[in-house]
Amino acid sequence: MESFESSDKPAPRFDVGAISSTVPGRSSRKKDSRPRTPGIYKWCDVLTESLIYLMIVFTPWAFGTTEFWSIWTMNFAGYALGAILITKWLVRWRTGYRPARWGDPVEDFDATTPTSSDRRISGGWVTVLLAVCTCFILIYCLVGALNARAVYLVGQRRFEYFDVISWLPQSYDAASTWQSFFNYLGLAWFFWALRDWLLGKTASERHSSRDTDDEMEVARTIGLRGRRAGSLALPERLQRLLWVLCINGGLLALEAILQRLSGTTKLLWLVQPTRNAEAEAQFGPYAYRSNAAQYLNLVWPVCLGFWVSLRRLALLKRRERARIGEGSHVVLLPLAVVMAASPVISTSRGGAAIAAINMFIAMGVLLWALRADGRRTQMGVVSLFAVVVGLSGFLGWERLAPRLKTILEDNMSNRKEIYENALPIVEDYPVFGTGAGTFGSVYQLYRATPSQAWAGYLHDDWLETRATLGWVGFGVVCLMLAATLIRPAFPGGISIGGEFTALTLTSVAGCLLHARYDFPMQIYSVLLLFLMLCSLLFCVTCRRSLLR
Questions:
Q1: What is the 8-class DSSP label of residue 330?
Q2: pTM of the shown model
């Protein structure tokens, strides 16, 4: 990493226009040959952005989106995003309009940069693969619901069986599988609509692309190599999205901490839940503290990655060393501290463990990313995590420590019993499973004794996916995860520093690890946030930082 700090005084600020005007034969303004954006397309982008923000803000505050009314509110929002995305596709097809997008082939001044054909070959197949897998999973669940083997009658506490086509996916609770299908359909539209919107450039970004040659000359002047035109700043849409996510997450964590300190047993001081009625079992708007910890563990590493990216951008503009505490992006630091401390304060054992692992990884990433910024900056990073540990210990350790001591005595809250009962389900239905969303209904048939608790979730999303979707569905889901996680390694999309990508991957990996011992993917708000981060990862390409 190169430092732009001079030995005695900071270097003067650079001016794109001033530098470009000195380049012979270059004009500071170029005519944009791209056609004007159709009015309906502009409105589609506005509506898409509004709905995305609504879903991000709404899902955690609506008690985690675990109730029928809140789930269907988000489903309809997802369907609306799908209708808008289809409208945008039709506009492109009928008018021939081709929107300016991040990752469009441009001429680089670095000979090592892949050509446009290389970009299509290297990254396009991953997008096609994920799109095909998305359609497959939706059709897989739909066929299972239509080819239902049984339906569970809740009032009568019995199954009613039907004849089925044995070589097709089946469901042992048609109502639950239909609900899962409708949920997945809305979430799928959310994923692809978010990706389409994020990759699009705003009007100001389209206009700034007229100065591509000037920007290249600036990059040469200040010593940047291998950077694609237009990549000197984070996209505006990505910045707005991350600001909404981080501020909402910080407010959520603050409310949850205040609610815990008040001792109330009502969620948001409003609703008394029927399950987990004790204050210690809840956290913020979540009736189950672990779900709150899972949500916040997804947000705070991304918040730190966003801070690093904005700090680098400020450093590039000033061409002088930035210190912790400078710039508007410093607001992200207290938000990250509160969110990172919350999993421990929630007294969730799994949430605290994942937070500790994420903190260790995040501190390593930040120290590596800022290794050329001086010892003072690195000490500031260490102090930041020391504050997180101190706040966590002061507000949460006294209640968490006794629970950690009994983790073996209570078999992780009787999870061992649930695992032992669930394994025969996987063995009995290895290929197609019992149907999406059917575990809660089917589990009662596999309890060793009627006196055992009737678990609604397996507390292991990996095993529950195998039990409900079988090896066929589970394999496709794993393929989708793999495609998402490897996408940043390929060219094309939003070019961004490796620190942000690494911290976002840390969030995703932490949630996948927690899913081995709990059920984050069964909670709508956590699953939607997880898919949001996956969509974000699917939009970016990991490039070297601007200052290296």
A1: G
A2: 0.87
